[in-house]
Amino acid sequence: MAAVNRTDRLYAIVEELRAVSPRPRSASWLARRFEVSPRTIERDIAALQQAGAPVYAEPGRLGGYAVHRHATLPPRHVTPAEVTALAVALTEFRGPFAAEARAALTKLVGTMPAGQADAARELIGRVRLLSREPVPATPWLPVVEAAVVQRRAVRLSYLDKHGEASQREVEPGSLVGSAGNWYLVGWCRLRGAARVFRLDRIRRATLTAERVPVRGFEELVPDHGSVPTRALSLG
Questions:
Q1: Is 104 a member of any domain?
Q2: Is the pTM of this model over 0.70?
Q3: Do residues 148 and 87 both lie within one domain?
């Protein structure tokens, strides 16, 4: 394994222990895995425990370090084909929370039995996609995501459809995807009304510390029945 900084290694240790839970990993095994000394692993484990991570030492000849079973997911009954389908969908996805979606898929694979996880990785490696026209790059997407999730006002430098620039302060409401683009629906303080901002027209976005009221899509777009949007389904 290539050398990593300590923060990355601490995270990776927890993920390694989570993937094999409830089985433990010894300090010597982890030391070989992360190419450090067993003493460094012991210091890392102590730091994780002080930070509140659910890592504990299991005594005995076959003991080591483990993550508490109640802090982990049991193996999921998903097939390699199902995981591959998710990977294909996420490869094409460029919208909000794309990075989080890929992290969730990685964690899902980590909860699969070892044989099934290996089969999933092998199948994913045999799938290729022809290049497609990408969704327009939106470098300020993480700031807009944070504004929506944390319910904080965001300042935008924005170009309208005529190419005219303006400075906006927006109370974020919803994120809407349509026709290859993503839009922020929010309350524009400059206009004193609800407005829709295409993310690829944002030239700069600054997250403020100001918390704002929750504004749902229905509140911001009262005639939403005429707008062909679909809510996300969680089953």
A1: yes
A2: no
A3: no
Report pLDDT digits (tens) over 71-85: 655 555 788 888 888
89 and 48 share one domain: no
**Cα–Cα distance for residue pair 219/173, rounded to 1 Å:** 9
Total domain count for the chain? 3
**CATH no. for residue 213?**
2.30.30.520
Q: Which residues constitute the domain of residue 220?
A: 141-226
Per-residue pLDDT tens digits for 209-222: 999 998 777 788 76
Q: How far apart are CA 3 and CA 9, in angstroms?
A: 9
Whether the Cβ atoms of residue 211 and residue 147 lie closer than 8 Å to each other: no
| Count of Cβ atoms closer than 10 Å to residue 102 Cβ | 15
Give the CA distances from residue 81 to residues 51, 118, 142, 202, 213, in Å, rounded to whole numbers and listed in that order: 38, 12, 30, 38, 42
d(CA 32, CA 38): 8
